[in-house]
Structures are given as C-alpha cells and as structure tokens.
Amino acid sequence: MRGLDLDYMAGLVPVILGYVPKTMAMASVAMVLALALGALLAIVRVLKLPVIDQFVAVFISFFRGTPLLVQLFLFYYGLPQLLPTLSKIDGVTAAIIGLTLHFAAYMAESIRAAILGVDRSQWEAAESIGMTRAQMLRRIILPQAARIAAPTLMNYYIDIIKSTSLAFTLGVTEMMGAAQKEAAGSFLYLEAFLVVAVIYWLLVEALSFVQRALERNMQKAFAR
C-alpha cells in the first residue's frame, strides 16, 4: 500500500485555491438571486394570491422534491431540446440559474415561516392605523421576519457554496472541476479530492464562525 503523495498535495493547494474566488462569486450571485426570488414567493404564499399561489406551491414542491443534479441536467442538457435559445447559455450561467431556482424554493418556505412567526399583535397594530398590506409587510413584518430567518438563510448560503461543486458536471472549472482535471492527469485521485475536500471544509468553518458572530450581535441588538 502506497502512502499519500504529500509533495503533490502541497503543489495542488495553490491551484485549487486559485478557483476559490470563482466558486464564491457563483455562490454569492446565486444567493442574492435566490433570496430575492424566495422572498417574493414567500409573500405570494402568505397573502394567498389567487391562482399565483397555486403555481408557486407547485414550483416549490418540484424544486424541493427533486435532486439538484437532476434539475441542473434538465435545465442545461434537456430544455435546449425544447427551447434551442437555451443552448447558448454557458455552464456558469446555467449553474447559477439552477442553484437560484433550487434554493429559492427552500428559502421561500423558511421566509414564509418567519413572516408567520411575527407576533399577530404586530399585524393587528398595523391594521389598526390603516396600513395597506404592502406597507405592513415592508415597514413592520419583513424587518422582524428577516431577523428570525437570518440563521437559516446563512445555512443556505453555506449549502450553496458546497453545491457549486456540482457545476463541474456542466463543464464549469471551479474548485471541484479543477481537482477532477488534476486527478485525471496524475491519477492521484485520493490526494486531489482530499485537498479539495479540506479547502471546502475550511471555507465552511470560516463562514460558520462569521455566522455565529453575526447571530451574537443580532441577539445583543434586540436584547431588552
């Protein structure tokens, strides 16, 4: 049994680290878009808008009930057969769209639960002074719901970062894609995948540290 090629692993670290900005950029764009779409879907569900609410329920059910990899393949390889225009979309854009739709479905349910978690007296107080539902949501309910949902949304951001590793199946060279290429050239698969796994782990640990610090600050800000 041979041991790990530590020199190869040490040389691979800067190569993989060079793709961290690309991975983080993809995850950040997908997070912003998913958050905006998820909030919109959550509001539709809370207000129970006729017809639209039923479409949103089906959308959420589909994207929560099917694997992300299947959704990426459907969007990137399948839909261009039906809509040839989609064949012009590159792998990075397709991965961001797939991540956005998938995580928006999960965020919508979390944000909806957070909105409904705001004390009923807040809704009644806003109604009593004649606020419209839009004013009520914007000024009273959503700011409080954001504080409730923040920890869960941060967890989704971490999940999006890890899920970007699937983008290599669409031909995108990000951290996982780079490790795959290096391993295919050297046949040192264990070393290559071990390096990328450790880098993902350290990224998640760093973000978890930031998340805990933000939660402590939020608790202090709202402590009585």
TrEMBL record:
Entry's localization field: Cell inner membrane; Cell membrane
Keyword Translocase recorded: no
Domain ABC transmembrane type-1: residue ranges: 20-211
Matches recorded under Pfam families: BPD_transp_1
InterPro entries the UniProt entry points to: AA_ABC_transptr_permease_3TM, ArtM/GltK/GlnP/TcyL/YhdX-like, MetI-like, MetI-like_sf
GO MF: L-cystine transmembrane transporter activity
Keywords annotated in UniProt: Amino-acid transport, Cell membrane, Membrane, Transmembrane, Transmembrane helix, Transport
Membrane topology: Multi-pass membrane protein
Domain of life the protein comes from: Bacteria
Transmembrane segments annotated in the record for this chain: 24-44, 56-79, 91-108, 187-210
Record Gene3D superfamilies: MetI-like (1.10.3720.10)
Protein family per UniProt: Belongs to the binding-protein-dependent transport system permease family. HisMQ subfamily.
Name recorded for this polypeptide: ABC transporter permease
Species, as recorded: Paracoccus zhejiangensis
